[in-house]
Amino acid sequence: MDGYDYLIVGAGFSGAVLAERLASQLGKTSLVVDRRNHVAGNAYDFHDDAGLLVHKYGPHYSRTNSDEVINYLSQFTEWHPVHYHILSWTHGDYWPFPINLNTFEKLIGKNASPAIMAQTLAAWRHDIPSPKNSKEVVLSQVGTRLYEMFFENYTRKHWKRDPSELDPSVCGRIPVRTNRDDRYLSDKFQAMPTEGYTAMFEKMLATPGVTVALNTDYREAKADIRHKHLIYTGMIDEYFDYTHGDLPYRSLHFVPETHDVEFYQPTVQVNYPNDHDYTRIVEIKHVTGQQHAKTSIVKEYPQDFERGREAYYPIPAPDARERYQKYRQLAKTEPNTLFLGRLATYRYYNMDQVVATALTAFQAIAEKDPTSTTPDLANPES
Ligand SMILES: Cc1cc2nc3c(=O)[nH]c(=O)nc-3n(C[C@H](O)[C@H](O)[C@H](O)COP(=O)(O)OP(=O)(O)OC[C@H]3O[C@@H](n4cnc5c(N)ncnc54)[C@H](O)[C@@H]3O)c2cc1C
């Protein structure tokens, strides 16, 4: 293979943003390799056998408060505005989720006002001024009853860890509202790419100067690819041959089904905290805007990670982070190499955070020395 300015491992958001920016703004060439048979990383979507646009690796809900991210991505896609609605199935019924005034009224069996809900939660919540983990964060917001109904078993099923063993951010990221706002997310921008994520990535990666090689594993191909710099977005422990042991991850098993009805369930996502082995059923058609007589759903089963499986989630917990720090020290000494993204920096990032981080990393490269062939690649993580 030819020599490239950059070899980029991974055609997900991190890799694609860097490849596009380096080519369009600095005229740098790059080869983007991905061991999967498609671009877009975990955001990959495709039309299934029934012709329905589906998300292969779990639902990807676009949202952000960052104008920079919106403006950047809008060069490659138009948007289908949407709000994401979720229900939780427990105690034999659908419940509005995240917890809001409608959930509260259903629970107490009569009408209430925001003030009554706030007063009641104040009586229910535990007095924990600085919650140290996800259990404490939920107990400090809504108390034991709602914690047990919606959070405890869902979290255990998903992470195979008790909420008390996970960072406060895992459950703390889910809003609790005393009004009737029943949207899953609160961000100002909530919209799906009109033609889907893969179409958006194809436009980004069609930038002259970017070459993509699919079905190509970096570990097998690296000896044959001449390049000046490396941008790596895969698992950091794999990169370093597991020198400090395996990092813990959580994996998933997806079971798709197509049904001969226009819609299968009332909302895009139904959580199953206390019933079944799956955590949720997702019917992405609710938010893609596609018109179709049939529908496809996906049942999502958490599963243990082992080498060879997809590492979907770094574990947001102190013990995992401690082990990651050892790899981080190694990464700092790796010449001409930038570690970027969810797996290489072992962070539980959303798409918009990954895009923002990649744009910042690009800026750092460009500002250091836009014409240099050996910029000092600064890891943007801080
Ligand atoms: C189930 C699930 C649901 C999610 N839902 C949302 C959501 O609703 N909203 C949201 O904002 N975010 C969501 N995310 C997070 C989102 O997927 C990530 O933030 C984003 O995809 C990270 O991009 P990335 O480029 O860092 O990594 P990835 O998308 O994981 O891309 C990394 C790529 O590197 C490739 N790779 C790894 N190692 C090698 C190698 N050795 N050789 C070649 N290629 C390699 C992989 O095949 C992969 O394609 C979700 C994640 C998951 C797992």
Outline the fold blueprint.
Elements: E1 3-9, H1 13-26, E2 30-33, E3 45-47, E4 53-55, E5 63-64, H2 67-73, E6 79-81, E7 86-90, E8 93-97, H3 101-108, H4 114-124, H5 134-142, H6 144-159, H7 168-172, E9 189-193, H8 197-205, E10 210-213, H9 218-221, E11 226-232, H10 236-239, E12 249-259, E13 269-271, E14 280-282, H11 285-288, E15 295-304, E16 313-314, H12 318-332, E17 337-339, H13 341-344, H14 351-368
Parallel strand pairs: 1-2, 1-11, 2-10, 7-13, 11-17
Antiparallel strand pairs: 3-4, 5-9, 6-9, 7-8, 12-15, 12-16, 13-14, 14-15
The structure holds flavin-adenine dinucleotide.
CATH architecture of the largest domain: 3-Layer(aba) Sandwich
Total DSSP helices: 14
**Lateral arrangement of strands in the main beta sheet:** 8-7-13-14-15-12-16
Structural class: alpha/beta
Span between N and C termini?
35 Å
CATH superfamily of the largest domain: NAD(P)-binding Rossmann-like Domain
What small molecules does the structure contain?
A: flavin-adenine dinucleotide
From the 3D structure, determine the CATH topology of the largest domain.
Rossmann fold
DSSP E strands, number: 17
Strand content: 15-25%
Number of domains: 2
CATH C-level class of the largest domain is Alpha Beta
> The biggest beta sheet, please?
7 strands, mixed
Low-confidence stretches: 372-382
Helix content: 25-40%
Shape category: globular
